[in-house]
C-alpha cells in the first residue's frame, strides 16, 4: 500500500530539476511514490525525468501532450496518486533530507485532514524562514476558525500547496483539485476551499521545503497576461465564500485580501507589458465594482494611504463595457473524475 504520494510538476526547469530530484532521492521510503509530471517541457527536463525514473525508487513519470500549466499538472498527479496521504513539490524547489517521513509522522500523530508547514524562502544565497501565520502549533484546530480575523494575516493568506500534507479523504471529497483555467494564483481559491470545508487541521514548525524566489522563468516574475489570473482566482474566492453559511463573517476577509492584492499589483505595474497594464487597470476597476461597496469601503479605510489611494483612483475610472467581467471565468469548483460539482 502506498502511504504517501508526492506530486511534482516540471516545466522547463533543467537548471533546477537536478536539485529537486536529488532531494527526493534523500526522502525515499518503500511505501512512498513520486509522481513526476512533465508539462510538455522543451528543454532538457524530459531527459532528467527519464533518468529519475530509473534512479528514484517509487518514481512515476507522466507526460502531457501539451502544456497545461501548474494547476493542470497537479491535477494530473492527483488523478494518478495512490497514496493514503498526498503532498506537492514544484520542480524548481527542493526538500531537506528526511523531511517527508517527518511530515508524514506529524499528520499521523495528529490524525487531522491536513497539516500546514513552515518553509525556507531562497533568493540567491539569502535564506528566510517563512512561518504559517497561526500561533498554535502541534494541536488539532478548526480550519474554518483559522480564516479570521479579517484584519490580520491568517492561514488562508499562506497559499502554498506544497507547504503541507493532506489526507486522501480530501481528494475523495473533491477538495484537492485545482482550477485548470488558472495559470497563476491557483493556490488562492484552493486554500480557501480547504479551510471552509475540511474538518480538522494543524500547523507544524517543521522546516524542510526550500522555495526558490526570483527565478526569471517563473510566472510570478513574468509580466504577461497570465498574471491577471489572480483576478479570476479571487473572483472564485468571493463567489464561493458568498454561498457559505458564514458568508457574513468571512466575506470581509476575502474582500480585504482581494483589495490588497490588487493594490500590490498596481504598485508594480511597470513590470507588465503595456497592453497587460491597461487590462490590469480596467479589470481591477471592474472587480472593485463587483465587490460589496460597504466591504470595499471598510477595506480601503484599513489600508495605508498610498495603497488605498491607488484603489480610490481606480474606482473613479470609467468602466469599459468589455471589461465588466474577466474573460472565461472558471466554474465554481474543479471536479475530479467521478466527483460531481
Question: What would you say this structure looks like, in words?
Answer:
With 341 residues, the chain is an alpha/beta fold. 39% of the residues lie in helices and 15% in strands. It is built from eleven helices and eleven strands. The strands form two sheets. Strands 3-2-1-4-9-6-10 form a seven-stranded mixed beta sheet, sandwiched between helices. A four-stranded mixed beta sheet has the order 5-11-7-8. A hairpin with a 2-residue loop joins strand 7 (119-123) and strand 8. Helix 8 (247-267) packs antiparallel against helix 9 (274-290), helix 8 crosses helix 10 and helix 8 (247-267) crosses helix 11. The radius of gyration is 20 Å and the shape is globular. The protein starts with a strand and ends in a 26-residue tail after the last helix.
Number of helices: 11
| Oligomeric state as shown | single chain
What is the strand content?
5-15%
How are the strands of the largest sheet arranged? 3-2-1-4-9-6-10
**Helix proportion range:** 25-40%
Main structural class: alpha/beta
Shape: globular
Amino acid at each position: 500500500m502506498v502511504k504517501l504520494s508526492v506530486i511534482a510538476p516540471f516545466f522547463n526547469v533543467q537548471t533546477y530539476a537536478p536539485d529537486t530530484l536529488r532531494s527526493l532521492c534523500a526522502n525515499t521510503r518503500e511505501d512512498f511514490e513520486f509522481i513526476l509530471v512533465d508539462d510538455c517541457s522543451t528543454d532538457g527536463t524530459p531527459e532528467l525525468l527519464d533518468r529519475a525514473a530509473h534512479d528514484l525508487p517509487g518514481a512515476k513519470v507522466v507526460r502531457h501532450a501539451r502544456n497545461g500549466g501548474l494547476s493542470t499538472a497537479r491535477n494530473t498527479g492527483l488523478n494518478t496518486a495512490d497514496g493514503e496521504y498526498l503532498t506537492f513539490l514544484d520542480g524548481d524547489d527542493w526538500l531537506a533530507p528526511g523531511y517527508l517521513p517527518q511530515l508524514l509522522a506529524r499528520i499521523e500523530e495528529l490524525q487531522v485532514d491536513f497539516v500546514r508547514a513552515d518553509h525556507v524562502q531562497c533568493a540567491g544565497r539569502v535564506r528566510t524562514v517563512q512561518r504559517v501565520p497561526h500561533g498554535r502549533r502541534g494541536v488539532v484546530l478548526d480550519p474554518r476558525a483559522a480564516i479570521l480575523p479579517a484584519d490580520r494575516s491568517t492561514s488562508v493568506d499562506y497559499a502554498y500547496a506544497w507547504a503541507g500534507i493532506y489526507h486522501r479523504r480530501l481528494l475523495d471529497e473533491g477538495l484537492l483539485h485545482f482550477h485548470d483555467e488558472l495559470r497563476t494564483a491557483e493556490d488562492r481559491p484552493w486554500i480557501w476551499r480547504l479551510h471552509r470545508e475540511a474538518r480538522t487541521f494543524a500547523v507544524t514548525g517543521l522546516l524542510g521545503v526550500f522555495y526558490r524566489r526570483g527565478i526569471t522563468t517563473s510566472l510570478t516574475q513574468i509580466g504577461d497576461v497570465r498574471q491577471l489570473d489572480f483576478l479570476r482566482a479571487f473572483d472564485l474566492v468571493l463567489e464561493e465564500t458568498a454561498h457559505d453559511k458564514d458568508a457574513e463573517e468571512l466575506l470581509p476577509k476575502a474582500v480585504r485580501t482581494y483589495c490588497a492584492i490588487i493594490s500590490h499589483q498596481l504598485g508594480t505595474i511597470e513590470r507588465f507589458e503595456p497592453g497587460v497594464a491597461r487590462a490590469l487597470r480596467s479589470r481591477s476597476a471592474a472587480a472593485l465594482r463587483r465587490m460589496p461597496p460597504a466591504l470595499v469601503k471598510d477595506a480601503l479605510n484599513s489600508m495605508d494611504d498610498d495603497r488605498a489611494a491607488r484603489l480610490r483612483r481606480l474606482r473613479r475610472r470609467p468602466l469599459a463595457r468589455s471589461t465588466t467581467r474577466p474573460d472565461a471565468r472558471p466554474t465554481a469548483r474543479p471536479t475530479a473524475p467521478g466527483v460531481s460539482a
